[in-house]
């Protein structure tokens, strides 16, 4: 928790969730009402004493009030230190928090160094495997994973909101008089009239495994016949972003702390995609409708003629200053637990180096394809979330294409749950019904989880031969080896 901690909104939400008046909090914490009022209005930072007192009253860890970036950095550092390479280090939670608080820059660089180490180990294993199969003469291809990590970190630092692109897309939609009901035709006409680009549907692209292809020579945009209408709209919108708003996108990329040409190229593509999402779901119209239908994803999908995934992703980007929507996390995961899309405007922690928690409903979604699952879940830092999950299937257009199935996860802190249709019928005040989840076993401190696959980092094993608990790993108390 580096620097001053301004956590007024979090203090107020906790107080209101517990049905506690400011005067009651003052009595319980032995702090003055005027001081608490200043804290809640972000006029005063939390002192160490106030942090301890308020945390004790609400029964949460002090890190609940930490800066989002420090929470993510601390979580990632704990995952890194779970590698057997650091088995004798014994760094507990307090030591990791101290390191992040004292030198966040060094902690971040240490994580990057570990990524480099991981990549070298993977490359070495790949080369050894090649030699085993007498293929040592073939160079191991592929791109280092750093570009993806760098771009994800950059997007996360912006809370997945890029104001300049959002405003540009919304202005274009309104000025041109586009309509969601005929947006495909509107964008085809716009590309033809404004950029002399014609669009054609191609059956051959699907056979090549290509969704869209732009030919600069003929100024023709080819769209795969197998792509559904909402995908074609997205491809057209992205092409407009690349052609007309390239300077805006390039400026965002130029300002980003990206360390390689590959990362900058990935960021450019990601921001072109962001522009496309902002054009087909313009900020003001989308936020108004989302609030009207209490963020019912299927109703938003039908209203705007988009896909379920497009709505979920757009909901995670609505953080315009002065008119922000609900802060959501969003992710896309495959059956093996690989997270290949993720963004968050919340404090939700995604596992970077290890598997995700099996109790999280995003994994259960595969057992009930196409059905929306709702879960109230609480993370180890005491934060409770309303979590939504559903599978989506991406077909290849033919029987032998082996459709790709993925699960989408969307969630927000429980203080926003009343604004979501998915909270209907749930007992949001009963904390005992919340499912205890974590980002991964190695960074989760829960002692009573029978689903644990690994012991927690910084905790010793309490091995006893005279009994067997339902929890597979009995751990020593925090700080005891």
From TrEMBL:
Q: Which domain of life is it from?
A: Bacteria
Q: Which InterPro entries match?
A: Cro/C1-type_HTH, HTH_RamB, IrrE_HExxH, Lambda_DNA-bd_dom_sf, ScfR_C, TransReg_Diox_bact_type
The protein's matches in CDD domains, at most eight in alphabetical order, are given as:
HTH_XRE
Cellular-component GO terms for this entry: cytosol
Q: Which residues form the HTH cro/C1-type domain?
A: 11-65
Key words, A-Z: DNA-binding, Transcription, Transcription regulation
- For this protein, the parts annotated as crossing the membrane are none
Q: Name one GO molecular function term.
A: DNA binding
Cited SMART domains: HTH_XRE
Q: Which family does it belong to?
A: Belongs to the short-chain fatty acyl-CoA assimilation regulator (ScfR) family.
| UniProt name for this protein | HTH cro/C1-type domain-containing protein
């Amino acid at each position: 928790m580096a620097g001053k901690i301004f956590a007024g909104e979090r203090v107020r939400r906790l107080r209101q969730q517990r049905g506690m008046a400011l005067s009651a909090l003052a009595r319980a914490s032995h702090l003055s009402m005027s001081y608490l009022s200043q804290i809640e209005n972000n006029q005063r930072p939390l002192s160490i004493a106030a942090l301890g007192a308020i945390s004790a009253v609400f029964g949460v860890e002090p890190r609940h009030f930490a800066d989002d970036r420090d929470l993510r950095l601390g979580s990632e550092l704990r995952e890194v230190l779970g590698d057997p390479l650091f088995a004798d280090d014994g760094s507990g939670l307090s030591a990791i928090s101290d390191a992040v608080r004292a030198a966040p820059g060094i902690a971040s660089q240490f994580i990057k160094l570990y990524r480099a180490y991981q990549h070298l180990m993977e490359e070495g294993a790949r080369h050894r495997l090649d030699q085993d199969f007498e293929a040592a003469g073939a160079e191991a291809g592929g791109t280092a994973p750093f570009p993806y990590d760098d771009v994800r970190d950059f997007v996360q630092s912006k809370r997945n909101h890029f104001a300049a692109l959002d405003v540009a897309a919304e202005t274009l939609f309104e000025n041109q008089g586009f309509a969601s009901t005929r947006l495909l035709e509107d964008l085809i006409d716009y590309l033809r009239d404004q950029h002399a680009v014609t669009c054609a549907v191609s059956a051959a692209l699907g056979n090549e495994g290509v969704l869209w292809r732009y030919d600069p020579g003929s100024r023709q945009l080819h769209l795969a016949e197998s792509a559904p209408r909402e995908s074609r709209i997205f491809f057209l919108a992205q092409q407009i972003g690349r052609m007309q708003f390239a300077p805006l996108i390039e400026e965002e990329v130029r300002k980003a702390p990206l360390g390689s040409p590959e990362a900058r190229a990935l960021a450019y593509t990601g921001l072109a995609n962001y522009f496309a999402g902002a054009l087909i779901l313009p900020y003001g119209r989308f936020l108004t409708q989302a609030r009207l239908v209490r963020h019912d994803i299927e109703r938003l999908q039908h209203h705007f003629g988009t896909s379920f995934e497009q709505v979920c992703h757009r909901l995670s980007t609505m953080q315009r200053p002065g008119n922000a929507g609900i802060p959501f996390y969003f992710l896309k995961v495959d059956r093996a637990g690989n997270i290949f899309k993720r963004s968050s405007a919340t404090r939700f922690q995604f596992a970077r180096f290890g598997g995700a928690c099996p109790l999280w409903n995003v994994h259960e979604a595969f057992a009930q394809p196409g059905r929306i699952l709702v879960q109230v879940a609480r993370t180890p830092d005491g934060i409770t979330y309303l979590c939504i999950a559903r599978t989506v299937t991406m077909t290849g257009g033919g029987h032998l294409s082996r459709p790709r199935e993925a699960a989408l996860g969307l969630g927000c802190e429980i203080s926003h749950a009343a604004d979501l249709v998915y909270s209907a019928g749930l007992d949001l005040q009963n904390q005992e019904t919340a499912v205890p989840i974590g980002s991964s076993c190695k960074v989760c401190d829960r002692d009573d989880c029978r689903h644990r696959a690994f012991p927690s980092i910084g905790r010793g094993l309490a091995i006893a031969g005279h009994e067997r608990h339902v929890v597979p790993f009995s751990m020593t108390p925090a700080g005891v080896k």
